[in-house]
């Protein structure tokens, strides 16, 4: 069976050891979406591709794909060249764990989504913990919206009015539904619910927990 050589810019989102010297890596490509490759010999210290296929590395790759579309069967990594590493410090790992869970569990295979790749490419974690957590939360919100799991994050999901200082956002914590103050105050289903909170009154960690719970809920129901 013939193979076709292809190129893509990818971010590695999962890497597992396979045999003594190989790895199986899951990537999200700018061109081909999410797919899996076998990277032969990369566990050897002498491998040229070793650093470029670490989890959360953005790399230019070339690979062989047997007959069929990318993702329909296991591809073979040929060469990888590093662009950059998304995390540069072990302490940043806790901020990317929920991102990796979302990408590995909720993103469909071989479904090209350049917007999701662009979101990943924009991640730049630093030493500011508050800024890192805010970046993670915003990424998850945008990714969930891109994938169709939640509606708009910029306007009321009921009346479509834009959020602003006079019409702030509230959130249904059980399903990440965003509603405006007008809809909240004029609908007893929401105004009397203990599941609704004013978005500006939530701390970053509380909001992060709401998102984590929602992602787990979506995954369990999938």
Write up what this structure looks like.
The chain is an alpha+beta fold. The protein folds into 2 domains: 3-85, OB fold (Dihydrolipoamide Acetyltransferase, E2P) (Beta Barrel); 90-221, de novo design (two linked rop proteins) (Up-down Bundle), CATH 1.20.1440. Helix content is 31%, strand content 28%. The protein has 6 helices and 8 strands; from the N terminus they run βββββαααββααβα. A 5-stranded mixed barrel has the order 1-2-3-5-4. Strands 7-6-8 form a 3-stranded antiparallel sheet. A hairpin with a 4-residue loop joins strand 6 (169-172) and strand 7. Helix 2 (114-121) runs antiparallel to helix 3 (129-146) and helix 3 (129-146) packs parallel to helix 6. The radius of gyration is 20 Å and the shape is elongated. The mean pLDDT is 93.
Keyword list:
alpha+beta, 222 residues, OB fold (Dihydrolipoamide Acetyltransferase, E2P), single chain, 8 strands, 28% strand, 5-stranded mixed β-barrel
């Amino acid at each position: 069976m013939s193979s076709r050589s292809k190129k893509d810019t990818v971010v590695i989102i999962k890497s597992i050891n396979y045999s003594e010297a190989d790895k199986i890596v899951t990537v999200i490509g700018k061109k081909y979406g999410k797919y899996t490759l076998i990277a032969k010999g990369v566990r050897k210290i002498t491998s040229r591709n070793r650093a470029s296929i670490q989890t959360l590395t953005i790399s230019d790759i070339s690979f062989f794909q047997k007959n069929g579309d990318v993702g329909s069967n296991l591809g073979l990594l040929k060469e990888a060249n590093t662009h950059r590493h998304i995390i540069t410090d072990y302490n940043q790992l806790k901020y990317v764990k929920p991102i990796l869970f979302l990408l590995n569990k909720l993103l469909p295979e071989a479904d090209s989504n350049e917007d999701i790749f662009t979101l990943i490419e924009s991640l730049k974690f630093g030493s500011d913990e508050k800024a890192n957590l805010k970046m993670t939360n915003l990424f998850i919100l945008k990714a969930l919206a891109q994938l169709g799991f939640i509606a708009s994050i910029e306007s009321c999901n009921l009346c479509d009015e834009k959020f602003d200082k006079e019409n702030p956002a509230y959130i249904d914590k059980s399903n990440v539904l965003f509603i405006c103050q007008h809809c909240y105050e004029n609908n007893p289903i929401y105004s009397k619910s203990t599941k609704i909170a004013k978005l500006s009154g939530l701390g970053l960690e509380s909001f992060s927990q709401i998102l984590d719970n929602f992602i787990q809920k979506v995954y369990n129901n999938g």
